[in-house]
């Protein structure tokens, strides 16, 4: 990989997401060599992916070059590499561009979509975990409407205009709200010759409430907001099959749709070599770590962020797979790696819960902070402020802010472009 060996300890970080970047920043300008490996050369701000999928934002405004984030750090190396395995006996990572020796290794690979072993759903549904996936979804939504115009078969047209979102967490709720706003504000203008009232948005949740994990008030309000926007909310329903045209559930309900979005779960993006059963939690498939983020059996190999499961009394199944735990663990591990090098005792990680929020659409959001819980317009402003604050890069913040103001004033979403058509080869015609 052409990275010089120096007298400084080498810390290899796999993943330039929230956790990896936070750690790399902490180790900047310290007496360690930091090598960050990522299969993409950019950091993705995943909380706004749904806005890319629905034409509210351009993808560039929620991505940021990793090299630019860390450009002023003299001890930093980035390599665009897909990590394929870890050789714990030889202290090496194995990537598609070669092997690299490490003194300290940090797995910050995040998570991937969990289909719970259902290969049919994996094949036919749309995921929204990455920018390319979000662009696929954006294209598919728009291609569906173009196609709906061309068919005289009513069932086919209905299926093209039906959207089924599986999963009532923040991702599903936010996407459903955005689709409902497209139906109301954009479709009638763009497709005057299509009866856009036929477009239906369904959100299916296997639990008895939306936004599980947030307060009861937040989930009630989210449901109320969605219903006001015309979204059909189905609770206590579990999707069992999808063959590209019919969604089957564990009840009598079925849905004919050309677009099913799977937002029903994620699991740790583990890497070969650290995926032995003893190291992994069965449910969320995350790497078990102790309170210092050390992987069981190693004192120089760590996992942080979504991929790590740190059970505690307050969080017996590990911390929520969200940005804050990832950012905080990255920062704390930076401190601990430096302590480890200096032979000082490590400091246990303590999660500071800063709250959870979700937006359902214009002027509609729900916010649960530690002390205050609120919903509605003020919550929406708080949601926007927090998301702008955590976006990386001044330009991105400005672009997103200007887009939001424009969209708000004009009731518009300008990025409704089929730039890279999504080949519907996987999706059979309804
Ligand atoms: C649609 C969506 C909406 C969300 N909304 C919210 C929200 O509103 N609030 C919130 O707090 N959280 C939200 N989250 C969750 C949040 O984005 C994650 O918890 C957070 O990104 C975890 O950070 P991380 O650093 O662990 O992983 P990630 O940010 O996922 O970063 C992992 C990095 O590792 C790289 N990588 C993975 N495998 C390899 C490999 N084998 N080789 C090389 N590189 C690799 C990836 O390219 C990526 O850059 C959302 C997630 C999604 C998908």
Describe this protein's structure.
It is a single chain. The protein has 430 residues and is α/β, with parallel strands linked by helices. The chain has helices spanning 18-26, 49-53, 66-69, 119-124, 131-150, 154-161, 170-190, 216-228, 323-341, 377-390, 394-410, and strands at 9-14, 32-38, 42-44, 63-65, 76-80, 83-87, 92-95, 98-101, 104-107, 111-113, 162-166, 200-204, 232-234, 239-242, 246-249, 254-256, 259-262, 266-268, 287-288, 301-303, 308-309, 356-361, 364-368, 373-375. A 5-stranded parallel beta sheet has the order 5-2-1-9-20. A 4-stranded parallel beta sheet has the order 13-12-11-17. Strands 6-7-8 form a 3-stranded antiparallel beta sheet, with no helix packed on it. Helix 1 (18-26) packs parallel to helix 9. 45% of the residues are buried. The structure holds flavin-adenine dinucleotide (FAD).
Radius of gyration: 22 Å
Sheet with the most strands? Answer: 5 strands, parallel
Low-confidence stretches: none
Instruction: Estimate what percentage of residues fall within beta strands.
Output: 15-25%
Main structural class = alpha/beta
Number of strands: 24
Mean pLDDT: 93
The gross shape turns out to be globular
Distinct ligands: flavin-adenine dinucleotide
Arrangement of strands in the largest sheet: 5-2-1-9-20
- Percent helix, as a range, is 25-40%
End-to-end separation in angstroms reads 49 Å
Number of helices: 11
